[in-house]
């Protein structure tokens, strides 16, 4: 068995829109925080601790239906701690959409074409992985802006065929904010604002954002994806360690 890490690191830097703040109590200073002396511990080292301040959408993470709106499919939208765990462990299907330019919406035809080239027919519960190649920009400001995004119709097409979790190797699931905002200001049509996200108000599904290393997968199919989010009670998203599990003979 081989395990492939599909995550970006959780770290402060230009690829994140919000800061990551870390306060460290290291091995030398921890004794004082505990009311003890450094020499009270073997080798003069206590146990360390860190306090991290960040958003639930920092680093590789999963968006729950509650992120999209208060209701999903006519019922109260599920928070991240309410996501069925069986959604988070399923066969992965990498869809090669690296030819779609930044700022452009990925359509149903694009998804159908990617599946036809594998070739593969989606099964209920499969986890589609939208491969844009945008993770090559990780570590730069361009990572936040230079990527395509899913359209509402392409998202609906996957969910209607049984996908409950869909991943993308880009900063966001929809087109970049600047692209959506430009269209909205041009004609005032608010349907261009996060249409893939807001489809989740119609039918529940989860998004994995900020995936990475999809090129390391051995093929488009033939592995399991494990993507269990942190159990953050009542919240709309959670940090997620996403890995591919490949059986090797």
TrEMBL record:
Pfam families to which the protein is assigned, alphabetical: Cyclase
Q: What is this protein called?
A: Cyclase family protein
């Amino acid at each position: 068995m081989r395990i492939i890490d599909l995550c970006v690191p959780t770290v402060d830097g230009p690829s994140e829109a919000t800061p990551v703040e870390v306060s460290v109590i290291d091995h030398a200073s921890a004794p004082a925080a505990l009311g003890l002396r450094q020499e009270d511990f073997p080798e003069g080292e206590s146990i360390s601790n860190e306090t991290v301040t960040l958003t639930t959408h920092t680093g590789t993470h999963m968006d729950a239906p509650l992120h999209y709106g208060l209701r999903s499919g006519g019922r109260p939208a599920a928070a991240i701690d309410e996501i069925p765990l069986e959604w988070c462990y399923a066969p992965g299907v990498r869809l090669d959409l690296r030819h779609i330019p930044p700022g452009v919406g990925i359509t149903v035809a694009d998804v159908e074409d990617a599946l036809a080239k594998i070739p593969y027919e989606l099964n209920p519960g499969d986890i589609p992985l939208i491969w844009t190649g945008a993770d090559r920009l990780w570590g730069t400001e361009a990572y936040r802006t230079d990527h395509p995004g899913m359209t509402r119709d392409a998202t609906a097409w996957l969910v209607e065929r049984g996908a409950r979790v869909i991943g993308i190797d880009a900063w966001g699931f929809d087109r970049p904010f600047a692209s959506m905002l430009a269209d909205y200001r041009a004609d005032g049509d608010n349907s261009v604002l996060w249409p893939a996200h807001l489809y989740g108000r119609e039918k529940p599904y989860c998004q994995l954002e900020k995936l990475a290393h999809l090129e390391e997968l051995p093929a488009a199919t033939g592995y399991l994806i494990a993507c269990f989010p942190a159990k953050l009670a009542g919240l709309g998203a959670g940090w997620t360690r996403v890995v591919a599990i490949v059986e090797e003979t």
